[in-house]
Amino acid sequence: MLDMWHTLLESLSGGQLRSDMLSQAQLPGLPPLPDGWTVETLLLAVVGIPAALALLHFLRVIFIMAFGKKYRALRALNKACEFDHLKPRYEYKVSLTSRKQLERYDFDRFFLDEYGRNPKGFGAILDKALNNEKKRRKYTADAERLLGVKPGGAAHVKFFDPLEVKMCKRRLRKPVVSPVFHCTAEYVSPKGQNRSSRDADYNMKQMEAIAKQYQKNKEFQASKAYQRSLMTDSLRYDIMKRDNFRCVLCGRTAKEGVKLHVDHILPVAKGGLTVPDNLRTLCDQCNLGKSDKYDPRGAN
Q1: 170-195 burial string, b = 16+ CB within 10 Å, else e?
Q2: Which residues contact 194 (CB under 8 A, 6 or more apart)?
Q3: d(CA 259, CA 183)
Q4: Rg of the chain over CA atoms, in angstroms?
Q5: Could you tell me whether strands 89-96 and 180-188 are parallel, antiparallel, or unpaired per DSSP bridges?
């Protein structure tokens, strides 16, 4: 034991310690020690007591991990409660061609377009976050009961409780319930000398609003009013030109006294879209006779 103190104190004193100094009440250049104290006593107080406390703490930790009821119960709770994996932050970056475009950049439009490109992916993220929030509420309530935390009152604390509760708190699950969607819009001058950027963070509520707007836009695009609004004069001309300005059913043209219409093969009222493959040229009489009829198994 004395050899250990000697080695330690010699290292602290830069190699100037002699073994006979361990029993002395004073070291050269230092004030005298209190009555009854020796250098060995000082070493025991400075090094031995903290080491003993550290060892006791280590043993308490091992005991809690092996036998602590709360600790073991929390481990079982953590194992039973599975949260969906989500990243806490989703990054997006957009490169723009002018400073004016950067100043006017619409982040709502960006995320609306991004949602439209991958509605299933974004929808899955939002669903997982909501699911994690529901599970987190139950998990938190179970963990609070397990740790003995009662609203408005203090839990009964035993010898191991403070350390065990502290260890349990460190092992509490922290699922992602509100991921952040971050977009950076950046403009770099042609020569790369000037660089400007704008940032925007969207939280769950904002992304849920984006999802609702996307669904609303999708429903409108499927509506009759929207499909009819797509029938522009330019599209009408392109369809008639494709059909040689002739009724595809009876073959008559405007020179023969009929008025040409552009008809939806599958009527808009039955889900038809205003796209070239669903459009054709009909004379007014054929179009009136056809009305909104459609036979999926025959000619139309």
Answers
A1: eeebebbbebbbebebebeeeeeeee
A2: 188
A3: 53
A4: 39
A5: parallel
Judged on CB neighbours under 10 Å (0-12, 13-18, 19+), 90 is middle
Give residue limits of the domains in the chain.
2-67, 83-221, 225-290
pTM of the entire structure?
A: 0.61
- Which pLDDT belongs to residue 104? 92
Q: Is 149 helix (H, G, I), strand (E, B) or coil?
A: coil
Residue corresponding to tokens 């008559």: 252
- Which of the residue ranges 77-81, 203-207, 259-263 would you say has the lowest mean pLDDT? 77-81
CA distances from 197 to 105, 182, 184, 185 (A): 10, 13, 7, 5
CA gap 226, 267 in Å, rounded: 14
**Residue 176 · residue 86 · CB < 8 Å:** yes
Amino acid at 256: E
The answer on pLDDT for 39 being more than 80 is: no
